[in-house]
Write a structure and sequence with these properties.
The chain is mainly alpha-helical. The chain contains one helix and no strands. It has one domain. The radius of gyration is 32 Å and the shape is rod-shaped. The N and C termini lie far apart (90 Å).
């Protein structure tokens, strides 16, 4: 619905100005809602990727700990024998 078809036009130029201002505000709000929805989707994707990365980091950390524990156990055993 454009500003030229609104009932505000019955009030002359002042009514037309008010109608146009209302139309501009509505358009801005619609665009804002669309942008927020788009950013929400992007934010959810970034959070999902971050969760996946943290899971990978934890797995890599556990593998390093396992290797470190194995090396320390072997070193301890070698020192006991030697």
């Amino acid at each position: 619905m454009g500003p030229e078809t609104m009932p505000w036009s019955d009030f002359g130029i002042a009514g037309m100005v008010i109608a146009v201002m209302i139309w501009i505000v509505r358009r801005a709000l619609d665009r804002s809602d669309a942008m927020q929805a788009e950013h929400r989707e992007e934010r959810e994707e970034v959070l999902k990727q971050h969760r996946e990365e943290r899971a990978e980091w934890r797995a890599a950390s556990e593998r390093r700990e396992d290797k470190t524990e194995k090396v320390l156990a072997e070193l301890t055993e070698a020192l006991r024998r030697g």
